[in-house]
Amino acid sequence: MNKFHGTGVAIVTPFQADGQVDYEALGKLINYLIDGGLEYIVSLGTTGESATLSNDERKQVWEFTAKAVNGRINLVAGIGGNNTHEVVEQIKDFNIAGYDAILSASPHYNKPTQEGIYQHYKAIAEVAPLPIILYNVPSRTGSNISAETTVRLAHDFKNIIGIKEASGNFDQLNQIMRDKPESFLLISGDDPISLPMIALGGVGVISVVGNALPRQMSDMIRTCLTGDFKAAQKGHSQLIDFTRLMFVEGSPAGVKTALKHLGICGDTVRLPLVQVSSGTAEKIISQTNSITGK
């Protein structure tokens, strides 16, 4: 199986109560995820609150994560932004030791044209020392990578190997599947629609929910990939309410609440994010107990 088939998790960054990175908890979380049967981890995707970490902190988290993983699982670094030159320089400066690919979100806020998005990724592809996975998440970036642009990039750059697609637009997903190179990977970037995306031809998910429930998510995804969607439906349905709660007051505050309840790490987030309300926390804890049997 390709190293990016199956379940990847966009890992949270645990913080101490004073807001400093909690490396002890990060190591504990990494071991928890590996024991949960994932195929790969994404370090400092948007779920890792990368936008609120300094450059030095990002380098330290990437280095710590690579050492903690120690080759036991595939590893992806999240490197993106809305300043193309800055992203290119970050990638040039990135220590690739222990890493297998780079996940790069489409530029946020600027709202570039499709040609601008193409040129942004062209500049990245021309310097990247590792394969690139595009990340399309219009709800966060304010712009969409069209199917035509995705397919154009996939055909023009062999080191652009896939896309984490979180548009939720199945017409767009249909076009990508029809027109992409055979080896190009369509990866779900939205937990609730991973099952139907795999039915369409997707190869797995980069998950938020999997931070707290790695075994349940990875088992369900692997069952999907065997083509047994009837069997996978049970696991998919079990996760519906839990998944909704992960995002009702923002991510990763929801999943950090579940992780705190499970004893993996604290629920501190950095401003402008805040912890979930007590009412939502109670619902998350109840769902976590229901699914894990605790």
Automatic annotation (TrEMBL):
Catalysis: reaction(s): L-aspartate 4-semialdehyde + pyruvate = (2S,4S)-4-hydroxy-2,3,4,5-tetrahydrodipicolinate + H2O + H(+)
EC numbers on record: 4.3.3.7
Binding site for pyruvate: T47, I206
Gene Ontology MF: a single term: 4-hydroxy-tetrahydrodipicolinate synthase activity
SMART domains xrefs: DHDPS (SM01130)
Pathways per UniProt: Amino-acid biosynthesis; L-lysine biosynthesis via DAP pathway; (S)-tetrahydrodipicolinate from L-aspartate: step 3/4
Key words, A-Z: Amino-acid biosynthesis, Cytoplasm, Diaminopimelate biosynthesis, Lyase, Lysine biosynthesis, Schiff base
Enzyme class: lyase
Subcellular location: Cytoplasm
Gene3D superfamilies, per the entry: Aldolase class I
Record field: transmembrane: none
Swiss-Prot/TrEMBL GO biological process terms: diaminopimelate biosynthetic process; lysine biosynthetic process via diaminopimelate
Site (Part of a proton relay during catalysis): T46, Y109
Pfam family membership, one: DHDPS
Top-level taxon of origin: Bacteria
PROSITE patterns linked to this entry: DHDPS_2
Active site feature: Y135 (proton donor/acceptor), K164 (schiff-base intermediate with substrate)
Function of the protein: Catalyzes the condensation of (S)-aspartate-beta-semialdehyde [(S)-ASA] and pyruvate to 4-hydroxy-tetrahydrodipicolinate (HTPA).
PANTHER family the UniProt entry points to: 4-HYDROXY-2-OXOGLUTARATE ALDOLASE, MITOCHONDRIAL, DIHYDRODIPICOLINATE SYNTHASE
Family: Belongs to the DapA family.
Assembly and oligomerization: Homotetramer; dimer of dimers.
UniProt xrefs under NCBIfam families: dapA
Protein name, UniProt field: 4-hydroxy-tetrahydrodipicolinate synthase
Organism expressing this protein natively: Mucilaginibacter xinganensis
Gene: dapA
